Fold each of these.
Amino acid sequence: MKIGILFGAKSFEHEISVVSAIALKKILNSQIVYIFCDYNRDFYLIPTEGINSKQFSSGAYKKEKKLELKQGGFYQKTFAGQKLVSLDCVLNLIHGGDGEDGKIASLLDFFHVPYIGPRVEASVLSYNKLYTKMYAKELGVKVLPYEVIHKNTERKLTNISFPCIIKPSRLGSSIGVSIVKTSEELDYALDVAFEFDNQVLVEPFMAGISEYNLAGCKCENEFVFSIVEEPQKSEILDFDKKYLDFSRTQRVFEANLTQEMIYNLQETFKKIYTNLFEGSLIRCDFFVYENEVYLNEINPVPGSMANYLFEDFESVLLKLSKNLPTQQKIICEYRYINSIQAAKGK
Amino acid sequence: MKIGILFGAKSFEHEISVVSAIALKKILNSQIVYIFCDYNRDFYLIPTEGINSKQFSSGAYKKEKKLELKQGGFYQKTFAGQKLVSLDCVLNLIHGGDGEDGKIASLLDFFHVPYIGPRVEASVLSYNKLYTKMYAKELGVKVLPYEVIHKNTERKLTNISFPCIIKPSRLGSSIGVSIVKTSEELDYALDVAFEFDNQVLVEPFMAGISEYNLAGCKCENEFVFSIVEEPQKSEILDFDKKYLDFSRTQRVFEANLTQEMIYNLQETFKKIYTNLFEGSLIRCDFFVYENEVYLNEINPVPGSMANYLFEDFESVLLKLSKNLPTQQKIICEYRYINSIQAAKGK
């Protein structure tokens, strides 16, 4: 099995993706083909041996072979013409913009490249936290109360009181997130968040709330789940601590939960995953408050694929790669145009 | 102004797009560059003079120049190498799959090609009728009651009674839509709808309901609206009648409505459009029942761009082309990786 790991791209989380991609080398025994997408969205084939983060920060990757995405896959120029890069399946490991907002999914689908990762609808509904809330509510999954503030509109909270959390709607990895305790802090926190998105979510900050992460996917109509992790945090993970998360390869300890609560989390995960997330391994981050499960967010391309939550991550990935959704068949018939032509006697 | 009209693609509405594209030739005085995407998703440059529907149904288009989409635009091979197809802006005129589901938006954004059309989030929320309902409800816009039936689950209505309408969640142009009056008819109608999508929406069929269409867009923070049309219909537009709709170039008569109702429709349109649909000219199809406005559906790539609803369609299009949203700037800094390297003394 040859896995093409696609990483980088035009994203605030570009560096996280680089770290995540390199972390997977330690984990996977399968053959890896590294495809780097730089900030300009040009693709490069990076030799697996010797891959390192400095290669990207220094610009040295530009000496490697440039690739072009066309029907059927990634092509490299050769003396005689071009050659398809051989791989069985791409793993979309681009965090944030491009990777999680639906662009990479669209590209790979459009060019008929098989891939592990969220499809375009799944991307849009999980990348934008407002849409995640809408989607969860539609399915009867609880979410914390929230309100939306848009850039250049009045900065006033109507339903949420302090302390509260300010989050850009469309970013992961805690970028631009603040806890706000007073109205004086609100303005600054909004300035920070609006650096990243013109739409911001406000949620109550609930001190006693527990947080649990559960990763999984569906293969052959059966769910494969990771252990449940209780993420370590001070008040909230800051960016640097989250970064560490992305390079994690060591297994973590299971959260201390009742079988009933694990079951509840898994059932909520199933409701969220439905058919929408087919083809992807996602991590759902839940809150538990007074024994009730709330969806916090969906990570459709979790840091280093949440490998550290699985006992045998590689076999899950390989199983998933054999259970990718197929695109709808559409037959080229020109039935309508032909019938009009026939009626006109042409 | 050189407009690149992008049409065709892998879609059940491929032929509609061909008809729609050719109709625009009659309407626009601007220079048109026709870019055809065939069922295999290969791009071709079609000479504007002599473009006709048979060219596509017969396969004759394959004699034309093949194009490749890369950073900056569409390229054609030349003897010496390759040449960028010169155009100021692409008009996404692909109806249904590819064009309205977010794929084309993603491709054009990824490759930095300016375009008129819905962006990826706008596409996903308007293409899937279930998500449109979620979105409208979130904004406080009324929708008809509905339920969702998935393929391979129990075919039972719980809240909706007969007569009702069965619609595939993800198709336009009335394809796969049926009115069902008895439980005997339900099964057949679901079979038909499931040919096109594995998710189906059921809505009550309300005989006395009025239907109004309103198209528009936002330029320089001001809305430009079309007239309001009351579409002619028997019980419901069937596919053939809808087809005619796509080749329409003649202006229609304005619906006979009070100023107050026109204002209500426009205000509802604004709520829906927000920032989400920036860069696109959309048509919202509304129901009015007992003087209340309900959103039926959003057409983010309406048939022949709803040109027949505007007094001066071309000037609206040109104005819009000068008010396209820009992508967020993301600076390549490698701040985190550099700081780690520095800490390691590398």
Note: Chain A touches chain B through 62 residues (CB under 8 Å).
Amino acid sequence: MNTPNHYILTWQCPDNTGVLAKVSQSLFEHGAFITETSQYSDPYTETFFSRIAFDDRNLTVSAGEFIEALDDLAKPLTMSYKLRNKADIPKVIIAVSKDDHCLVSLLTKWKSGVLPINIVAVVSNHQTCQSLANWHGVPFHHLPITADTKAQQETQILTLMKETKADLLVLARYMQILSDDLCQQLAGRAINIHHSFLPSFKGARPYHQAHERGVKVIGATAHYVTANLDEGPIIAQEVKPINHTFTIEQMVHMGHDLEATALSHAVRIHAEQRVCLNGDKTVILT
Amino acid sequence: MNTPNHYILTWQCPDNTGVLAKVSQSLFEHGAFITETSQYSDPYTETFFSRIAFDDRNLTVSAGEFIEALDDLAKPLTMSYKLRNKADIPKVIIAVSKDDHCLVSLLTKWKSGVLPINIVAVVSNHQTCQSLANWHGVPFHHLPITADTKAQQETQILTLMKETKADLLVLARYMQILSDDLCQQLAGRAINIHHSFLPSFKGARPYHQAHERGVKVIGATAHYVTANLDEGPIIAQEVKPINHTFTIEQMVHMGHDLEATALSHAVRIHAEQRVCLNGDKTVILT
Amino acid sequence: MNTPNHYILTWQCPDNTGVLAKVSQSLFEHGAFITETSQYSDPYTETFFSRIAFDDRNLTVSAGEFIEALDDLAKPLTMSYKLRNKADIPKVIIAVSKDDHCLVSLLTKWKSGVLPINIVAVVSNHQTCQSLANWHGVPFHHLPITADTKAQQETQILTLMKETKADLLVLARYMQILSDDLCQQLAGRAINIHHSFLPSFKGARPYHQAHERGVKVIGATAHYVTANLDEGPIIAQEVKPINHTFTIEQMVHMGHDLEATALSHAVRIHAEQRVCLNGDKTVILT
Amino acid sequence: MNTPNHYILTWQCPDNTGVLAKVSQSLFEHGAFITETSQYSDPYTETFFSRIAFDDRNLTVSAGEFIEALDDLAKPLTMSYKLRNKADIPKVIIAVSKDDHCLVSLLTKWKSGVLPINIVAVVSNHQTCQSLANWHGVPFHHLPITADTKAQQETQILTLMKETKADLLVLARYMQILSDDLCQQLAGRAINIHHSFLPSFKGARPYHQAHERGVKVIGATAHYVTANLDEGPIIAQEVKPINHTFTIEQMVHMGHDLEATALSHAVRIHAEQRVCLNGDKTVILT
């Protein structure tokens, strides 16, 4: 084996004695060469979360046998895990409406190698971002939506995800509310950016709400999509001080950077398998 | 006149043409020596806000005549103003329950000369902070409260404010909700610290709410007290990133610093007459 | 006059009595309709800075006469001023090397109308960003540079600025050090982004320096270019907490957003004539 | 055993295969009930850092035998470790000059149970803080210092540390520079607060330096003391945006909160054995 394969193992289970010992011992016995480890034991839910990166330079068994051993280990520990060859980066579809600042950020970071994802399509209910997507060599799908065609349009998105084998749908200022059904089908696989520091200012026009309330700090929140609007598990939040001189327009403009930063950060750590769901919350294993 | 008197003039009025010209011209004509000016013209409410600090080293009229001229100017401009000799620092009463971190911060900053206020009393529904207040030489009033005695206790607070000629009531983690009546009587003269970045997590146990929601940023908000709980005009907000490893206790502890910082900042800028009410919001003239 | 012209007047002078009164009185007398005012009186340098936005809907004189009156006012006050029709937005040339994140940010914000500038050219010592500039419809000039051709290349930049009547050169991660001579010719007209919170980590590879030092916060600084490397007046700084797990690469990646945010903010407020030079420092009139 | 004893084990060693497995296996075999684990593998120094909190409710051996097993494990791994009963909280001496804001913060947090330390003495070259220390029931030692008596005064501090069995010296705005010799004797056992975001503005009057440079962000840095002034490993940094209107005095006042926050945070995580030295840097195991 000349060039080692790199793997990412993320797992969680009830926090019983010896959990970490058993897993790390198993990895050790099979010759996994660990390069990164991160754990968290949640005292509230008594759940153990762990992310271990390793390579197979010294692996004493085949990949298949390794997974079998992992399965044997997982069952008695009631452990759920995700093991991935680091080279198999997630396939991502980005949904967008008219504002392109989050899309630009994702495409630029992806192109420059910062985001370990593969952007396989951009979908939009408008055509505004078509040439931008195309310039980056990404297929663009114009999927207009009306009250009558909502179910049909969502089916098109799902079909596209299946066809492209997409692992993740990123709502990069996509101004449509997903149906409960779609939310459930994409549980843990759809990330949205909301332009406020949630739970403040859910719903429409959050900067207008923030201006109305007179807050001294604005923010943006990247979160997993759930059927409860803007209530999904929070992955990342960015905030910034403002003052009374900020017009709504200035808040919107300054907010663009907060949104792009929070969203691309959330997508990166999701793609690196650093985000674990812990009920309605997230554990970020850095 | 050997040592000049310093004055702070804060005023607001409908934003008509020439407002700034008329006021600054009037100050100039009477020989006011301006040391600080700050203005804001709110395009939403079409209101003009201004704070001008000046001294009387070159004043060509008496203080009384100066005020007369100001009154003459104010009427046609529908201008409301507050003129104060800078040396007449506001008298402040601090209300507190058991937690002393905000009280400590205010007393310490006051003693070291950072806060241009005169703390004339500490009132509390508990006795926990008595020795702290006394050590700083501040009279402590134990005003216990029950459902039955609430009206009476609030009367005691108001009486104390009158007796001490207090200009401001600071709720420094005072865990009682003021009655609507008291809120109205103290409109613009009572500042509260709430331990969340409002409007998120109003009401009781905001850190517990924040933990439950899984936010990645916590905060504290200093605001004027109004009859709508935690809905008053925001003066200052402090925020800080957290992560999933923070227990509720750690959030509480880290929050102490945010609360003390936001509250003492709000009290300072209020005392320096830098805070103007603009409907349900504030304009901070720095 | 159907649609009013909007003007921005930014001025500074020694802080003598009546300065604000005289200027606002003059504007008032000539019928200037003021929409924004911001002042600052620096107690250290005893200089008065002011920015006034107004329109000519009620102007009682011609624009030419208005400027004459301003000149008459300026001389006795030793006042320097810049008056601009708001519609005459500054022409900007962006210099870039290989990294495109700051260029992308400026082009995207410009295209979406957030930045009140006119980007007339992109210059680069590499060809990496050519297609990006062209896609945005901006002329791209490849100006390679060697030790031998540095003077000649800088002349090409200056010539281009003259030909395009550019008001501002923005160094958007342009990895060449400008000669002292060019710095002086562009004093107050060239903005650079440095990828550290200056004055920490001047010069080459600041993220490597930051990693070496083990700081817990990284940053980016937008500043005017001067002959003293990374010592020019600071316009804007962005910072962000990090921890020991950040590799240099992660710091570089996270830094991209800080740099783009700080630079585009600096360019915006410069273009809005909100930045005044105060010796080696800046006054930002918001 | 009715109430379990809680232990904190912090260790580091060269990052060889199986390190985590061996240690966690050993803990598991001896019945340690793990409640917190945090690891970091530094790819630059190839060092493994770990902090494990556990209790002895299921421990199958005596504490003495457990330590023997740990010693046996440590040697072949070239591992250094610190094992502490959590109840044996560190004894701390605080050194202070005239400014009391950091001392107040430490004493208040300590009294309210936030800081797991035992403050055994306050030493000062002035008498300003005597009554404050005494009010908190902490012995105060006035140790004046002159150029001639510096060596002798430092000996007094060291003697006091020995007599009180102090583990940590906290310089809470102590305005004396420790001798190289004392720095070396207290390596890793002395924490200083510097009132700038290091490495900017080392040495005297950092807020004056910051004002002179015109930075848009100020900060405070808590770090271990080393013989190179203000060059020691950084534990925590706090920063805050400012603008041109801030006078030096306002920067000083606002800085007080940054300093107190950074220092008390650093003392807390040091006391919880979360801070590891990694050359000239720190690893914080949260």
Note: Chain A has two domains: 6-85, 91-284.
